[in-house]
Structure formats: structure tokens, C-alpha cells
Amino acid sequence: MEHGPPGSASERRERILEATERLLRRYGPAKTTVADIAREAEIAVGAVYLEFASKDAIVEELSQGQHRAVMAAMRAAAAEDLPFCDRLRAVFDARARAFLELAGSGAHACDLVHCQSRAVKAAHARFLDEERALLRDLIERGARAGELDAADPELAARALLTAYASFSPPWLFQSSREEVEAALSAVHRIVLYGLAGRDPARKPAR
């Protein structure tokens, strides 16, 4: 993260965010206080409140950043030059990889995308809306292209999210990467290629 000029408000804000992220990855939101954040950032407690109204405001901004990174990976997968069914597969694969990478970055790193914190829940709710919209758009375009069988793209998007629910937080974090990849492949063959009316024995595009 680039810092602003020494002593500037932007530098102070960045220091607070970086310090909070380090603490959250180690201890989680519940065990991190504003005093802890100030100490880690080497600033006064009052300086924290000059930039953020509360600890929740800091946590929500960090959680939004993590969710944006996952969504960016999903959007990149959705833009690949593939049949729409295989784009959907790529989107879910990208989502799982992005969340699993986060899981390996600290004992409580996953708390930034799923925990009882109101701030994290708010950020995750926005992510779910964006995720559903992305899937709906892909399904709608695939149906128009004659590649997908979906009379109601919104309903199909919701059904896909239900089918893939175990590959999102917190359940995703309870399995190894190898287990996740094997299970994802099995679900792809059952769900996505049924949506496409495709022979599941056909090897998917990569």
C-alpha cells in the first residue's frame, strides 16, 4: 500500500488500516480493540477516531477490500473467452481459490469475510448482491446465445448459489484445497452441464 506524505491524514489512515489488518489476521475482530490498533499503528487513540468513527468502520473497510479482491477474480474469470457454461465454472473456481488464499494468510484471516462482526456481515451482504448480479448477467447472456437453458436468469443464479453454498465461507474453510477442488469438479459436472444440456462425459474447456 502506498503512503501519502509523512504525517498527512492519508498516511495516518493507511497506517491504521495496515495495523488493523495485521491484528485482525492474528486475533480476529472480537479480540482487537481501538487501543490495540493505535498501539500497532504507533499513533494516539484519538488519532484513530480522527479517521474512523469506530472500530467497526475500520473492519468494514478492510472486509470490503477482501471481498473486492474475490469479486475481481470472479469478474476476470467471467470475461474469459469460453462458452458460457465454462465461464460459470471458471467463476466458481476463481471464487474458491481467492477465498482459500485468504485462509492461508493468518489464523483469523477468514474473519475478514465471515464472522459475527456486524461490519463483516454488512460487507459480505454487499458481496452476495454483486455475486448474484454477476451470475445473473452471465446466465442471461448465455441463454440469449443459445448456450444455456434458463428461462429465468435470476432464479437460475439463486439456484446456482444454493448449489455451490458449501464452497463459500465458512464451510469452504473446513476442507483442504485438494478436497475443495475434487468436490467442485463433481458439482460442476452435475449442476453446470445440466444447465447447459451438455453431455457430462464431455471434457470441459480450460
UniProtKB/TrEMBL annotation:
Top-level taxon in the UniProt lineage: Bacteria
* Residues covered by the HTH tetR-type domain: 10-70
| DNA-binding residue intervals | 33-52
Q: Name one GO molecular function term.
A: DNA-binding transcription factor activity
Arranged from A to Z, the UniProt key words for this protein are:
DNA-binding, Transcription, Transcription regulation
InterPro entries per the record? Homeodomain-like_sf (IPR009057), HTH-type_TetR-like_transc_reg (IPR050109), HTH_TetR (IPR001647), Tet_transcr_reg_TetR-rel_C_sf (IPR036271), TetR_C_27 (IPR041478)
What the entry lists under PROSITE patterns is as follows: HTH_TETR_2
| PANTHER family according to UniProt | HTH-TYPE TRANSCRIPTIONAL REGULATOR BETI (PTHR30055:SF234), HTH-TYPE TRANSCRIPTIONAL REGULATOR RUTR (PTHR30055)
Any idea what this protein is called? TetR family transcriptional regulator
Give the organism, scientific name: Sorangium cellulosum
